[in-house]
Design brief:
There is one protein chain. With 365 residues, the chain is an alpha+beta fold. The chain has 4 domains: 44 residues; 107 residues, 2-Layer Sandwich (Alpha-Beta Plaits), CATH 3.30.70; 64 residues, no CATH class; 85 residues, Alpha-Beta Plaits (2-Layer Sandwich). It contains 10 helices and 11 strands. α1 packs antiparallel against α2. The longest helix has 43 residues. It is elongated. The N and C termini lie far apart (103 Å).
Length: 365
């Protein structure tokens, strides 16, 4: 019997007349239908559960850690071990065959977003090797006109053997400085880099003659161009005689031009200036006289050659702000100068802009 509204009404009418048989028949049909529906629902749920288990199993399989193009964890572990063995083999080859590497006593590192100091470079060496390599000088490459950093650092070593040792030792470590990966390169031809460490307007700095001789061995013409620029600057300097530029003039520059129009006076000193004794002072109003800066820093010991210890090297014609280089007798005095001036108003005058001060290069420890 199909359960319809008409069948239900007929069953209710018969119930009113005292006949229960029709109602009982309708109820039996309804209960049977409900049981059948429940069974269908249960069967459907069981089927869905079965499919779900299969899907879960598939998902579980697919959610297992997959690395390196679809490998399982076990396969990935095997790949890791193979990779480590290859790296170890490469390091051993590099260590035992350093003569295959470009030969140069200079390494360079490009880290434009980092402010690095000598300790950062030493920290790259495994602890047990730090006494086996000596870095003579770390030079921060700068653009010659305004001495702004280029982002490159040059590591100067005594010879090729020392630079090769450092390179190989660093490759055995993490090769990270402050979280950044460090990728060193040898500089076999330094002549193209010389312009970033040799600033013609400055006096002679430590290791500069050696670097110039190294560059000259590859491209003497590039070195000559730089020396020509120094001669032009000496000519235009007004009262700054060639002899105040000391050793480099006599050993290299004036060796070529000794018969020319420049005359060498009495040599002032044989001492080359340490780069860590030089302070770059920026954002100085161009109307400020150098003598006033010296008076403000009266308690510091300035470099002995008066004409060289404070030089204006650049003035921004748009802002009217100048860049100076201040040179002191000691590293301690240079550090004191930076602490006193950096991020302060010159002369503590609120009407003057905030100046910035930094060492040309940190002292190598």
């Amino acid at each position: 019997m199909a359960i319809t509204q008409q069948a239900i009404r007929a069953a209710l009418d018969s119930l009113k007349a005292g006949d229960t048989a029709l109602l009982a028949s309708v109820l039996r049909e309804a209960v049977g239908s409900d049981i059948s529906s429940l069974e269908r629902i249960r069967s459907g749920r069981q089927a869905a559960a079965g499919r779900g288990q299969e899907e879960e199993s598939t998902v579980a399989d697919s959610s297992k850690p997959m690395f390196l193009g679809g490998m399982t964890r076990t396969e990935e572990g095997d790949a890791d071990r193979r990779a480590e063995e290859e790296v170890a083999s490469a390091r051993t080859t590099a260590s035992n065959s350093s003569f295959y590497l470009p030969q140069s006593p200079i390494l360079k590192l490009y880290q434009p977003a980092a402010l690095l100091n000598p300790l950062d470079f030493i920290s790259l060496l495994p602890a047990e090797t730090r006494g086996k390599v000596e870095i003579q000088q770390i030079i921060k490459a700068r653009y010659a006109p305004n001495l702004m950093p280029t982002g490159t650092y040059y590591l100067i070593f005594k010879d090729n053997e020392q630079s090769g040792r450092y390179y190989n030792f660093v490759n055995e470590g993490s090769r990270r400085i402050n979280g950044n990966f460090a990728s060193f390169e040898f500089v076999p031809d330094f002549s193209t880099c010389l312009k970033y460490v040799y600033t013609p307007v400055l006096p002679d700095l430590k290791y500069l003659p050696e670097l110039i001789e190294l560059a000259r061995s590859h491209h003497a013409d590039i070195v000559d161009q730089l020396l020509e620029k120094r001669i032009e600057l000496v000519k235009r300097s007004g009262g700054l005689v060639a002899s105040t530029l000391v050793t480099l003039n006599e050993s290299l520059l004036l060796r070529k031009y000794s018969e020319g129009e420049l005359k060498v006076g009495e040599k002032r000193t044989d001492k080359l200036i340490d780069r860590s004794h030089c302070v770059i002072l920026r954002d100085v109003p161009h109307k400020i006289e150098g003598a006033k800066i010296k008076d403000f820093l009266w308690d510091l010991k300035w470099y002995e050659v008066e004409e060289l210890n404070l030089r204006r090297i650049f003035t921004d014609q748009t802002t009217g702000l100048s860049v100076y280089v201040l040179i002191f007798e000691t590293y301690k005095d240079a550090k004191r100068c930076v602490r006193k001036l950096d991020n302060e108003r010159l002369f503590y005058d609120k009407s003057l802009p905030v100046v910035r001060a930094e060492l040309l290069d940190e002292r190598t420890v």
